[in-house]
Recover the amino acids of this structure.
């Protein structure tokens, strides 16, 4: 499942034997423990994208006001600017939708199954 250098794989195998679980489960648990920080990073990422979207909306409103003040200002170039702003805002929305964290019980169940064993043994140093 994971491509690891030989020395890392040997250490991972030794750890799995000590814990009496599969090497893949050890690797998954390590990865899961590390990715627990990702939701906080994604939340900050989403906030930044929301700020970008808000900025683009305000720019579009200002552009509309500017173009609405004098009918002669409405040109093909101004319409192209509005179309591009709309396109960029849709792209930002798509990125936000794609980055939304969808919880999975599978990984939580793996961790719980390991952590809630009746006997926990400390590893030797």
């Amino acid at each position: 499942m994971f491509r690891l250098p030989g020395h890392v794989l040997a250490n991972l195998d030794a750890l799995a034997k000590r814990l009496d679980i599969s090497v893949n489960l050890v690797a998954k648990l390590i990865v899961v423990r590390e990715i627990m920080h990702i939701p906080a990073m994604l939340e900050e990422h989403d906030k930044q994208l929301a700020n970008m979207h808000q900025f683009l909306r305000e720019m579009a409103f200002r552009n509309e006001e500017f173009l609405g003040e004098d009918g002669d200002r409405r040109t093909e170039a101004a319409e192209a600017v509005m179309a591009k702003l709309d396109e960029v805002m849709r792209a930002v929305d798509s990125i936000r939708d794609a980055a939304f964290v969808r919880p999975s019980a599978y990984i939580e169940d793996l961790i719980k199954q390991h952590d809630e064993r009746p006997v926990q043994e400390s590893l030797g140093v």
Remarks:
- The mean pLDDT is 77.
